[in-house]
Design a protein that fits this description.
alpha+beta, Beta-Lactamase, Heat Shock Protein 90, six-stranded mixed beta sheet, rod-shaped
Length: about 425
Amino acid sequence: MKLPSIRRRLARSLVVWFLLSGFFVASAVWLAARHEADELLDDTLRASAELIGGLLLHEGQGMVESRSTKMPAASGAERFAWQVLNADGLVILRSNAAPSAALRTTPGAGFSDAPNWRLYGLALGQDGRMLYVAQTRDERLEAQAEITLSAVLSALAVGLMGQLWVRFKIRHELAPLQTLSERLAAFEPADARASLGPAEREELQPVHAAIDELSSRLAERASNERAFAGHASHALRTPLAGIDAQLAVALVEAPAELRPRLQRAREAAQRLQHVVAALLGLFRSNTGPQRRPLDVAELLARLPIQGLAVRVNGPAKLSADPDLLAAALLNLLDNARRYGATEVTVDVPAAGLLRLHDDGPGLTSARLAELQAALDARNYESNTGLGLMLAERVATAHGGAVRLVPAERGFCVELALGGEPALGELARAGAGR
């Protein structure tokens, strides 16, 4: 996974965590604020009732009992309302914000609830008078909402600052991994002198050491494979060349009735020489294919193809390794002949793209898809056969790929040999079908 992808996933996780935590914090704060605000406002109601009651008792001789008296309006908004009721339950004195009707019809001390009001009752003397201090439900809800909103905004601000800090820390902590990724992109593990060098962080040093050790083992293995290829080239080509020479002599000296059989044996030996040359070529050093401009028709003319008509459409020019391409073509053409084809059409529909289409029985779409998946995954154990396997390896060595193209009749295979541009042409050619 790329580091930008990791950062995006972590950022999304932080946003989700931020929203969820904000929701739960808001819920918890709302519940706590509602409970604490109720207690605080109730305490304020009780304290206000005790204060107003003391003042009224002190000035009791001036109260008017014959009619309801409203006190002068206070400056500013009133947070509480109060009423004084006589023993008959009539309002004899009230604040500006209090209703003219009694808040409570039956006398009672302490806290109680009325429609849209929260009350606290206090007895004034022994004559049945009651003082009620009240606050509207809307006022209490507004107070609770203000407390909750302030707490939630503070929590969200802290959470946002925490998220920004965490994102900064994530970017800072992932920076050494980004540097390591860039070093690995330019790292050549098969080079014995290659090294990632010291790590930017102490905790990454074991990773650097493990990669350097792996590189050393890969370089040693590549060196052994190159040595094996060199020895195998001499050990295999020399006997095959000797066999071909002996068969050539035998063709001259043998009776006429044996010459066809000797000729087939020599052709088989020559095909084996080409296969061996191609396989050994794949074990060469990592310098890549030895590309050169070539004419596909001229290359095919030099291949020992028997029992198969090969037709090249139009000018077929490529830049490729002739030895590797010859071995791939020889095996693909041999496959076509063995599976019943009598004619193969070869053309170059786009730069760096070689197509072979035979007139054989072909394959079912399911089998074609199975083979394509096996080639894409380089799963050569899935009965891909030597021909397709070798063609895929040759195309890969050229920086391309093999594509099996569905056809109405026969079998069609394309080899991209030009790296990324050829692959793009291959994709467009496939999309146009």
